[in-house]
Structures are given as C-alpha cells and as structure tokens.
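Revision sheet: structure tokens.
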Amino acid sequence: MLKYTDLKSHQLEIINTIINKPKSYIWADMGAGKTASSLHAYNWLMDIGLINKVLIISHPSIINSVWHTEARNWGELQDLNFNIIKGNVKQRIKQLEQDEKYIFTLLS
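Predicted:
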C-alpha cells in the first residue's frame, strides 16, 4: 500500500495548487498522478473541515475504474467514501445533500 511519502514532487505541487488555488485546473500527461494528487488534496481539505464533499464529473468508465481504484492504493485514502449519483434531478439533489464525507461522482 502506498503512503503520502511515496508521492513525487510534481504530485505535491498539484496538491498544493488544488489547496491554495481552489479555482485552478490541473493539466498533466496520463499517468502523471493527477488522480492520486487530487484525492490527497480533497482528503486533506475534508480532514481539516474546509469541505465535506467533492463532485467529480467524468465519463462513466473513468469514474468506475480510475477514481475508486486509485483511492484503494493509498493508505491515507482508505476512509474516503464514493457515491455515484444516479436518478432524476430530485434524487440526485437528495444524494448531494448528505452531510457525510463523500467523493461524489456524476455520470456524464
């Protein structure tokens, strides 16, 4: 199982960017560690109480394979809960109104 100390310097830069510039974009090659970096940043922001949920909008194949799988590779991310939002508008809003610590993913 990977640990925070296994992150590479460019991944730490991504984490710092997400934390310090909430309206930022991360552009990096495939395999550069964007998902792990993003999850670490979101987890830290949730741990300190600045946020309690994150909404990721992506293609279903990415949501179902990449985000969940990547989180399970990291010891610090084992407590993250994922919930795929489905249903009509009213059902999706109800799911988002949960007060629990979640990473929400919306199938686009």
